[in-house]
């Protein structure tokens, strides 16, 4: 503190007045974009290739490696066939929505089931009861489910995940590993034809590939793409 | 029971409540469990309780302090912790060694590098890894930058808790420049996740170096001119002097470390006392002050900024060439054993004690956080002061609730 | 649903009342004017007979209405100046340089939920902001803005000012007490302690001035300071100004004495539980208070509406525009045209790149500026209340700037230091000032009995 009382205050006032006239540091964001470092990690983003399809192969490696489980993968796999989901059965977002709904007093729908055709779960519950909801007996459980429904409906897998506590992605992994388990009724259309219908660009890519390789690449049911 | 009845909202007009909502009493709804609780929650003549936090505008983070007041004078207090508890230690024990580092980042979220450094050091000790010298220098360089950023924020907060509007924004300018710089180096502004077992994530790049050069050329001048606002201000000095005084013996008894201990006159600095990394090769002083009050803690941190600038300067001059990562397998399975590592953070001693059982996950990981240790001495400092000073005392200790609640 | 409907639904009850009341008031005013125009004579005769009452009602209305733009302006100044001192840009999105942001704040406050906490005393809780606001507004009545431009001439103007100004603490205390919140209570009690303590040095600091002036009439005090700026009382009462300024800062609860709403200590003090327009009234009252203490400082010590120097070339404007007859019409029609062309011509000639219409536009703008300047100068010279108002506002807003500047710079004092300062420093200093002034007056009177 100085000898003269008030001198420090006066110095501070002089300093603020000087800064009053100095250039400002604010960045007017929408008009001026800030100078972001090239290495800045920022937001997670999925990339598209030149054919317009997602580069992500839904291999779950990123979600599996993520230490804080902030990567929560959900959606449809690259062939647009199956709903896939990596993460705990109830993610933060779902839990938040649900608790908000609960507080509103309305009955709570399970958001995870909504996009899929519902199936009658009574036989599944009986099967789960037989296996004592034990996730370790996943394969026999899935086989019994397929025997009951003729195939493995996504809703049924979801239900198994909820009841046994096994992660949906693990059930999906088990089910997709064994060739005798199938995700659609036996009479379902060929996948490649469905792909052609859904993604013309990919179809043209396959045609081009077909021409280049001399036939066989774009045929329905080609084993490399199944 | 239908869902709609089980989860009836309190906003629902059909719900009648037996008590008035919005009237929150600080007294817990259960009978006192300890003698201390019974004593604290009994009001004397003319006393009242007041809840400071967890949603008070100036408690740092979500600390709740129940103050027992006599008029405006604090008679007694009871800190209530745990609003930010995440179970970091347990999470770390369920992740492998690389993943565990990431969990420690948000402990002290204003100085993340000092939270990832001790586990990295401890794991390196467990695994007997030799870290390349360039990586060590980069670690020192980036962490000292982070120390300045943290102290700059402290200086602003301190003033904000005393009612000054401007210093917080000026110090955020400093902090922002450093943080942008570190973003160029590490890829993130706040939770850097930069240190790896055996080295660092990325090498120095041109973007970082040019920003650092720009900033270093004006840093001293800028920090000094900004601090001239308050250092001589009579109102500020009068409020800070003699506030929250703690003597050396008490500080040692309360296991204080870092600037809060050095403000009582003990030149204890882990960088010198138990040197790690390349600090033995660097020249710097350990500033101390003897008063042990808020003003001493405030001024001491300003001296530390200058020392950090010195260290950064030396790092830049001595930076060796070479690799930035040691050769390590992708999956780490250290031999069974235990390791302890401590670093000198901006708040004090950040340390980690890790036990390995030979698997790829730490068997036990204990995190020592200085904020928690320092916060326990508010019980000694606050009683007898006014309600206006509680926040100033707390700010002068500089606790980060992420580290306190873990 | 239309935009209007949506907006209407978002308004709270007071907001709806205000928005309904505005057209009603407008229609009533128009009806009143029409009635006066039609009935004419008798009404005017009655009004003329009761001129003081009419004058008072009009003055009160104007003062009440004046507080709103004043508060908006000061809020904007505060946001912008503090931002600039913080090296920020501050408001810059709504209106030119963000100047309408405070208006938007006002509308926002109207649209917010008007919330009364459980356990509060609703009557006192509702009336507290009204009391605070009215205390601020009523003090404006005696401030002389310009020669002849004041609400009410009172012999005891200064005393009235302090008496009513002290009332605002009642509102704060009511708010603190009725909110059923300990932070509010602490804030209200702090306000009471602070305002009561600082009332004494505040009043004592102007006693010296009253001795010098020999009156408490603010108009007379201002008129005594006419002439050069050295005649201002600030040069005869330097210590008095200092004490007055510090004590007035504390009275208006401004930084560094803003303990009643110290956000880092007691959340928002007495206003913790307030929301909506009730909070808005507190907010407005605070900024009107800033204006008022600035205005009073200017009135008492800085010459009020007097210019700092007498106009060196006294001009008597006796020209009556009406005497020009038809020439006036020609003047009004032709002169702007000629001026526009005269301004446009050199611009157009000077550069090839300037198009004709651009030059004309620039000429038109310049002409307007010139005309406004000429009319302003004419009003300034010819009408002494315009000159007075200009100088008064300039000085007052200079003081408002100082208050904002202090807020940007200084931290807050502690309550015990605040009390110490009032009783141990300001009170003795103001007494010293009083004794010195009295002694000086006695000495001068003995030396030079006039």
Low-pLDDT ranges of chain A: 89-93, 107-115, 217-226
User: How many E strands of chain C?
Assistant: 0
Oligomeric assembly: heterotrimer
Structural class of chain C: mainly alpha
Specify the overall morphology of chain A.
elongated
User: What portion of the residues of chain A fall into strands of 2 or more residues?
Assistant: under 5%
Key attributes of the depicted protein:
heterotrimer; B: 406 residues; alpha+beta; 3-stranded antiparallel β-sheet; 17 helices; 46% helix; globular; disordered N terminus; C: 450 residues; mainly alpha
What this model shows, in words?
The complex is a heterotrimer of chains A (226), B (406) and C (450). Chain A has 226 residues and is mainly α. Chain A is built from nine helices and two strands. Chain A has helices at 7-20, 61-65, 92-104, 122-130, 138-149, 154-164, 168-177, 191-198, 200-213; strands at 73-76, 83-86. Chain A has a two-stranded antiparallel ribbon with strand order 1-2. In chain A, α4 (122-130) runs antiparallel to α5. Chain A is elongated. With 406 residues, chain B is α+β, with helices and mostly antiparallel strands. A three-stranded antiparallel beta sheet of chain B has the order 1-2-3, with no helix packed on it. Chain B has a three-stranded antiparallel beta sheet with strand order 6-7-8. In chain B, strands 4-5 form a two-stranded antiparallel sheet. The model of chain B is unreliable at 1-8 (pLDDT under 50). Chain C is 72% helix and 0% strand. In chain C, α5 (101-111) crosses α13 (276-301), α9 runs antiparallel to α11 (238-251) and α14 crosses α15 (356-382). Chains A and B meet through α1 and α3 of A and α4, α7, α8 and α9 of B.
Task: Write a short abstract of this structure.
The complex is a heterotrimer of chains A (226), B (406) and C (450). Chain B has 406 residues and is an alpha+beta fold.
